[in-house]
């Protein structure tokens, strides 16, 4: 992991401790303390991967031999490590072993968050995080979403099942296809002969749009049956929610429909979403 940020703020210190210290020493002394700690950080950057400054190094650099700066440095590093571990597990909740492996890989033996705390603190990502998430962007680009398989569902045709559990809030895959206008999508619907359609109509910021997964295979994945287009419908048992995002691809922003788990999804469950958010329902529903 690469991290070389140098901190110059003192905002990591608990507010109460800071206030008491300032009251004791007066504003001038507190400012001096902040300046000294800033210099300490310049000398010993508190990154997730840096080694703690030993007493010998601290005193050789002219800092006090007590542990005041050192302890503060350690809590900054701890927070950085926590942030790093959480960032590696942003889309889906991590397992204890995944976090343990990450810690092992980094070689962190002390001053490190406990895997169970990282697991317990996991929360679904926000839309803003999703829209710039490199992992999600890569999955949309390469269509190598994991934990999904096709299965025959008889009269419904094929569908998608979970080959691993997905926790509520996880991003499962996208509804992949070229984004066209709603009018173009409706024209496509008219030309469809059978009762199966692969179109997702949506409105975004006043725009009437449609993801065309009917034109298959798509230009960008000529050899893949992209999974999102194969997900069947249910209004009552839907376990996925389609979410519109403006994804920040390297070449610019693009409208994308992502499927997010509405609840915890178990291994082997069929993935389903409610097609009424899309007008391309050309079939009789079998729940
Ligand atoms: C986006 S495709 C889904 C994949 C499709 N089952 C297949 O095998 O290609 C949508 C079509 O699947 C079928 N389908 C999806 N959900 C269904 C359901 N609950 N009952 C019956 N047919 C369904 C309909 O033919 C619908 O037009």
UniProtKB/TrEMBL annotation:
All residue ranges annotated as the SET domain in the record: 146-276
A single GO cellular-component term on record: nucleus
Native species: Cyprinus carpio carpio
Record PROSITE patterns: SET
Polar residues: bias regions: 1-12
Record protein name field: SET domain-containing protein
PANTHER family xref list: N-LYSINE METHYLTRANSFERASE KMT5A (PTHR46167)
Superkingdom of the organism of origin: Eukaryota
SUPFAM superfamilies noted in UniProt: SET domain
InterPro entries registered for this protein in UniProt: KMT5A, KMT5A-like_SET, SET_dom, SET_dom_sf
Molecular-function GO term, any one: histone H4K20 methyltransferase activity
Region (Disordered): 1-32
A GO BP annotation: regulation of transcription by RNA polymerase II
